[in-house]
Structures are given as C-alpha cells and as structure tokens.
From TrEMBL:
Residues 34-53 bind DNA. This is TetR/AcrR family transcriptional regulator. Keywords: DNA-binding, Transcription, Transcription regulation. Pfam families: TetR_N (PF00440). It comes from the Bacteria. Residues 11-71 form the HTH tetR-type domain.
Amino acid sequence: MRRQPKQQRSRLIVRDIVQAAREHLNENGLEGFNTSAVANRTGVSVGTMYQYFENKEQLLDAVSLTLAEEIKEQLDLVAGSEILSGFRDFSRVLISSIIFYVGSQPLLIRALLSSDAERRLSVAAEKIEGHFTDVFRNYALQHHSELPNTNLPSAVFVVFTSILAVTLRMQIIKKPGIDHAAITDMLVESALATVFGSNYEAP
C-alpha cells in the first residue's frame, strides 16, 4: 500500500475501495477488472484511490489479505464452538469451513491466483497458516495432554499445506465425479494420521 491511512475517514475509504475491488473481481474476474471501475463503484476519484494503492497489484494484494483475515475469523468460530465432540469432529469442521469459504467465491479466488499468484498466495497463506497452527495446536493440546508427534509445528504445517493445496486445486481444476465430502474425510484422516500417528485412534 502506498499510503497507510491514519485517520478514521481514510481508513473507511480504504476499506470501501478494497470491498469494491472484491465485488468487482467476483462479478467480472481478472479479465474485466480495472481500477477506474473500482473507483466509480466506491464513489471516489481515481486520483484518490491512487493515493492509497499505487497500482492494480497492490489493490489485489489488499483484497487477498482481507480474505485471509476473514478465514482467520472462520477458524476462530470453529475453535470457539462448544458443540464439537472431539478432535476428529473439530478437524472435519475446521477443514470443511476452509473448503466452503474458498469455494463460495470461485471467480474471486481464481482472479487472485491469476496475477502474481505465487507471491500473493505466499503472503496470504503465511498469514492464515500461523493462525491455523495456533488453533489446531491449542485444540490438540487442550484435549490430549500427550501427543505422539513431538514435532507438532511441522506436523501442523504439513496438514495446513495439504488442505490449502487441495482446496485451491478444487477451484482451479474442475473434475467430474469429485466428491467434496469424501475429499474432506480424506483430509481429516490424513490430518489425524500426521499429528497422532497412523496407528493412533483419535476421538
């Protein structure tokens, strides 16, 4: 971002610009994306928008980080649920929520992956990963005082990377016959095996 907003009014303008960019992407994809349309949708001049975002890539970065924050909020909702019946149930809801959230806005996700995707994905994924690791680890330790896997951070890294890779691939490549529920179950069992060991029966 070119200029960090310090006053409340500036922060609201930036929020509205990012939201407008997100809506525009979700409706038109990257091919139909242009900054003038975003400015018009926001109700500000292009010059005002460029005070905060130097170019289209910076604006796409901001949209990507906003999505990352929303996924973090989803993770917190799962972690705070009082109706989960064990670690397997927790893992299933956690993984399902990520798959559902990403899948609910396919045009937007594809647009963000189409332009400078490697760098943008790395930044957003790192932001989500740290939070995912904390949520996953805290729940595991809360319900299991001793974990078979002593290198939990590495195990959770593998789990998160697997979930992210599968979820994004499901959006990029549409294959007939893919059962999302079955994929979720497989990811859950893989996560449990990675954290607890293949012979460990987690509740």
